[in-house]
Amino acid sequence: MFYTGSVPLAGEQIAVSYRTIGRAVGRAVNTASQLALTEAGLPAVSTWIGSATNPPARSSADCRNAALVTEQAAAGVSALWSGTYKSTSSNFASDVWPGDALLLNAPSTGLNAQMVVRTVKLSYRASYPDLVEYAITFANDWADDLAIKTSTTVPADTWLPAPATPTVLANLSALAVITLNGSTVAINAGLTPPAGGGFEIRRRDFAFMAGEDPGLAMRATLPNMTFSRETANDRFYIRMYDGSTPPNYSEFSAALFINLPLGS
Q1: Is residue 217 within 8 Å of residue 202, measured between CB atoms?
Q2: pTM, 2 dp
């Protein structure tokens, strides 16, 4: 069905495209760790690919945060620490609970790290004086992460990011409509573009790139833009780009949906 004024003329062709939902993905790289490994004569690149199962990663930003935490925890040569400690209540000034922080300082082994108590098992036998035996297990986050649970499996329909981390510009979250009528719409992007860059407006939320094509509405180098409408239910997607070759864009589009009849 078409709005009045938008009915295709005889001989015109209609193009239909579909927007699909992609899985959230993220990537993190620890360049300082890579440099340290290279200086030590070890392979500079160690990779891990998997999924964050808990808490659920509902966006690519969540995935990047999970990847960042994982690579930071794994960056140290001695990052993987876990163990057990047994003693009696006479050696503790207070009770020990799972979740307590445990600072281990052993100069003979070069260990000075903070762990987290994972489990505490209490054993009691009739004795004089009364003593409770403690069996404590501890680990750091890389050995047994309390906050993030991961899996080594990746869904088959996941598109993994490119090896190089892309440069993304700020999203146009402050974009505002200035005027709107039956023939044009004027907006303010809410940001000043970087040197050599500007704003790109398209009628579909993909294929942002330099060059002309049917989906391009306009490009501008100033925050204030006025462009023409074509249908009563126009949809426009706006991103910022810079002067790089090829240009870098905002990670996500600012979407402008209009439902207003065309007219003078």
Answers
A1: yes
A2: 0.51
218: Cα within 13 Å, side-chain hemisphere: 14
Residue in this structure with the two tokens 């500079």, named with its chain if needed: 44
Report helix, strand or coil for 133.
strand
User: What gap in Å lies between CA 247 and CA 231, rounded to an integer?
Assistant: 30
Nearest-angstrom CA–CA distance, 142 and 81: 8
With b for 16 or more beta-carbon neighbours within 10 A and e for fewer, the 174-202 pattern comes to ebeeeeeeeeebebebebebbeebbbbbb
Rounded to whole angstroms, the Cα distance separating 150 from 80 reads 16
Measured CA to CA, the distance from residue 164 to residue 158 in angstroms comes to 17
pLDDT, one tens digit per residue, over 145-163 is 666 788 888 888 887 766 6
Burial environment of residue 35 by CB neighbours within 10 A (0 to 12, 13 to 18, 19 or more): exposed
* Contact between residue 179 and residue 185 where contact means Cβ atoms under 8 Å apart: yes
The neighbouring-strand residues paired with 177 are 187
Tokens of 117: 């108590």
Cis peptide before 107 (omega within 30 of 0): no
